[in-house]
Amino acid sequence: MKNKIQILVIVFVLFFWLMWISHAYTLTGDELKQINSQKVTISNAENYGLRSYYTQLSKWYDILQANDRLWTISKELRDYAYSLIDSRKKVAKQSSLASKSEFLNEYKDNISIDEDFPEEKCTWRYNTIDNISFANDFPTALTIAVWYRESTCGYYLPSNGDGPFQIVNKDYWTWEITEETFKQTIQDFIDFSKRKIDNYNNRADEEYPEIKISYTGFDFTGVVNYLALYNGWTRTWWIIQPNAPEYIYDGYGEAYSWAKKFWTYPMFLKVLEREIDNM
Questions:
Q1: In angstroms, rounded to a whole number, what is the distance separating the alpha carbons of residues 53 and 10?
Q2: Where are the domains of the chain?
Q3: What is the pLDDT of residues 193-224, one digit of tens each?
Q4: Cross-strand partners of 111
Q5: Distance in angstroms (rounded) separating the CA atoms of residues 189 and 147
């Protein structure tokens, strides 16, 4: 699907590039038909493919501004793709509100430290992170929780070159971060996380169930086991034992009440609370 969407964008751009007209433009009936046909095609795309389509059109957007006709056509399709993504995301948020609220109410009281949620630092890029997480069917609160744990929600490239999510098999260099690079680090983080989950789930069975986490649903065991997988774990048969339990639990429960700040699991709950409050 990803390659198909990329090909679709390339064909679209080349087709209209050949029909270049450089003056103020009103779409013709035939062009509206072609645009509507494109809309039908992209409306059938899955969320990841739809976001890829929108992202690629956005990259062409500035180039096409010099030509009113191409700019008008690209804007029509780009805005439609965005509206479709946005409407799907709103439906997903509303449909999962009750279950997420129930989850939060069950577990939030075990947070053992009194610290304000770093609202300004960790949510000023919320929409960007939320859009990418939604397109990949991954919990936004987990993305932000790990970002916080690995680089304190920093919008920079750490000196070790592993990026803000500290993925050791990646090299982002260490110069100033760009918006495009930041978005890529989020995508890389989710891809990396899903590979770890898939590798574990390939060995799961009835006694040791799969990790199931998504944009709209998760459970306590799935979230905790995922965080252990991400940070490092010791396998006892196929049961996950975190190498560093404090990576997950600092600030959560009596055993970790000495913590000075939220780490991944309590941070996950705090972001989830913020999401629910703003739905």
A1: 10
A2: 2-88, 111-277
A3: 999 999 889 887 767 778 999 999 999 999 99
A4: 252
A5: 9
Coil/strand/helix, residue 242: strand
CB 42 within 8 A of CB 77: yes
CA distance 42 to 139: 24
The tokens describing 87, both together, are: 């409407």
pTM, entire model: 0.86
3-class DSSP assignment, residue 263 = coil
Instruction: Find out whether 164 and 248 touch, Cβ atoms under 8 Å.
Output: no
**Residue closest to 223 by CA, chosen among 277, 266, 167, 169:** 266
CA 189 to chain CA mean position, Å: 9
Show contacts of 81-87: CB within 8 Å, 24+ apart: 81/42, 81/50, 81/53, 81/54, 81/57, 82/54, 84/42, 84/43, 84/50, 85/47, 85/50, 85/51, 85/54, 85/131, 85/134, 85/135
